[in-house]
Amino acid sequence: MTNRRKFVIQSGTLLAGSMILPSCMNAGEKLDNLGIQLYTFRDQMAEDAKGTLKLIADLGFKQIESARSDKGHYYGLTPTEMKSACGELGMTLRSGHVHIDDNWQQTLDEAAASGQEYVICSTMPSKEQSVDNYKKVANIFNQAGEDCKKMNLKFGYHNHAYEFESENGQVLYDVLMDNTNANLVHMELDLGWVIVGGKNPLDYFEKYPGRFPCWHLKDMDMAKKESTEFGKGGLDIATMLKNRASSGVKYIFVEQEEYQNNPAASMKYNMDYLSNIKL
Fold this sequence. Notes:
Blueprint: H1 4-15, E1 35-37, H2 42-47, H3 49-58, E2 63-66, H4 79-88, E3 92-98, H5 104-114, E4 118-121, H6 131-150, E5 154-157, E6 166-167, E7 170-171, H7 172-178, E8 188-190, H8 191-196, H9 201-207, E9 214-217, E10 219-221, E11 226-228, H10 237-242, H11 244-247, E12 251-254, H12 263-275
Parallel strand pairs: 1-2, 1-12, 2-3, 3-4, 4-5, 8-9, 9-12
Antiparallel strand pairs: 6-7, 10-11
Helix pairs in contact: 4-5, 6-7
């Protein structure tokens, strides 16, 4: 874990020179509402949540997606403290990764108090890789969607790579898609894990148009099967962005789980990369 003093020094150096998120990708084409999944800064958030949020705001991010941690869903802050901290920095707590477990109602109460829009299940509640299990999970998700709707929240699911395995010719992720109510289950497509799973996100945009209001924009080192900076892996980011409308995406959350140096350096690299994409 990067110690706090070293992290602050590195971050300040990176942000010098008014590093901001590019608001204009091309004439008339804007990509100025990007979000970040806080797991990218997980160690720093655990050590200094408000200070790290300030760094993230300075990088130009506008939307925040939280994640479970040893300190809860908001890194030691209460839901209202998290909402206020983001708001004071010009950001919106938009989404959060959670589990469906015995604390489900508490999770929803916290999400409602935080003002976030989406509650995203980050892992399968039952791990069996079979069509029957995915149909059962689809029913669980439909009920979770009902629970969320009653509290003016939106429920969703975030994929990894294993959902794209098949049983008897049926892709398990497709089983999940075909058996969930599109009005209740709003999918967050992790583009990086899709390609690791051997599939093309564009095929899913076409097969299930409008079903993916949230993305994780993540490039993947296909040899190591781990995340990397934009342009260094197997995801054709420019093509994904050019086709984003068909997916129905409202919020794009950048996520990187591994980095050569530190999260701030990787995020600067990624934003510089995006600024050079011509759409």
